[in-house]
Amino acid sequence: VMLSAGGGVKGVVLRGIDPATAPTVLSMLTELRSGQAKDLEREGTPGIIVGDELARRLGLFVGSRANLLSPAGQKGAAGYSPRIRPFEVVGIFKTGMFEYDSSLAFVSLEAARDVLGLPPGFLSGIEITVRDLFRADETAIRLAEALGAPFYVRTWMDMNANLFAALKLEKIGMFILLAMVVLIGSFSIVTSLVMLVMEKTRDIAVMMSMGATRGMIRRIFMLQGCIIGLVGTLLGYGFGLGLGWLLKRYRFIKLPENVYTLDHLPISITLSDVLIVGASAMLLCFLATLYPARQAARLEPAEALRYE
Q1: N or C: which end of the chain has fewer CB within 10 A?
Q2: Alpha-carbon distance 71 to 83, whole Å?
Q3: Residue 82 contacts by C-beta under 8 Å, 6 or more apart in sequence?
Q4: What are the b/e assignments for 42-64, b being 16+ CB within 10 Å?
Q5: What pLDDT is stored for residue 27 in this prediction?
Q6: 221 C-beta neighbours (distance < 10 Å), count
Q7: pTM of the model
Q8: b/e string for 15-40 if b means 16 or more Cβ within 10 A?
C-alpha cells in the first residue's frame, strides 16, 4: 500500500495483526521506541505502527495523522478509485534493519481488512514463534504434515535463504583469511626456534654428550614452540573476545543504513567457532616447530664442539 503524510508518500508493506497476541511473536512490538501495540484497537481513527526510518522520512510521530492508499479500488461512476483510509500513528519501532524500519507498518486485523477490501474473518497466514530458532525447520515439517494441503509453511530460514548463503560464504572466506594470518605468524616461531638452535648449538651438544637422546632434544624445541603458540593464542582469545563483547554491548561500529541491512556491526560469539579458531592456531604453531626441532635433533655433538 501507499502511506501518505505531510512529509510525502512512501510505499509500505502493511501487516494486519492481533494487538493482543502479536507482541508474543514479534519482539519489535514489545520494545517500541514510543507508543504501545494495544493502542492499535482504539475508538475513532484506527491506529498504525510504523518503523523509525519510515517515520523520519515522512515526518511522523506518535499522534500524527496519515492516510493509507490501497490498490484494491472502489468502483464508482467515474471508474475505479483507490481505497483511502485515515490512520493515527500510535507507535514507532526500530529493529536496526533498514529494510524493516523503512518499509513496514502494522495495523489491526479489522483495519487491514477494511483497507484491502477483504471479507470479515479473512486471514492470509498465521505466524508462530519457537523456543529454539535454529530448529524452526523441524517445527515447519511437523506443521506441514499436520495441516496438509492447501496450507504451506515457511520459516525465517526459507525467507532469507539468499542472505544466509552469502553470509556462509563470507564466513568460510574469513576463516581462510584468518588461517593465513596465523600461518604468517607461525613463520615467526620457525625463525625464533631456528635462531635459538643456532645460539644453543654448544648447549645442545653438551646435553647430547651427557646422554640426552635426539628424541629428548626434539621434544624440548617442540614444547617451547607450542608454549609460544599457547601464550599467543590465549592473548588473542583475551583481546578478541574482549573486543567482541564490547562491540556486542555498545555497538560503536556503525554501518551505513542505506547500504547494509543493519545499522551496526553484528557480533555473535559461539563456542564452536572459538574452539575451532584456537585449535587451528595451535595446530599451525605445532607444525611450525617440526623443522627447527628436527634440525636440533640432527646436530652432531662432535661437530658442534670441535671449535669450542
Answers
A1: C
A2: 7
A3: 69, 70, 71, 72, 73, 74
A4: eeeebbbbbbbbbbebbebebeb
A5: 86
A6: 24
A7: 0.67
A8: bbbbbeebbeebebbeebebbbbebb
Of 214, 86, 21, the closest CA to residue 30 belongs to 21
The C-alpha cell at 269 is 560469539
C-alpha dist (Å) from residue 153 to 50, 124, 134, 145, 156: 26, 12, 16, 10, 10
Predicted confidence band of residue 308 (pLDDT cuts 50, 70, 90): low
- Give the pLDDT confidence of 100-130 residue by residue, as tens digits: 899 999 999 999 999 988 888 899 999 999 9
| Measured CA angle at 121 (ends 119, 127), to 5 deg | 120
CB 69 within 8 A of CB 60: no
The answer to whether the CB of 37 falls within 8 A of the CB of 25 is no
Instruction: Report how far residue 283's alpha carbon sits from residue 225's, in angstroms, rounded to the nearest whole number.
Output: 11
The separation between CA 148 and the C-alpha centre of its own chain, rounded to angstroms, equals 33
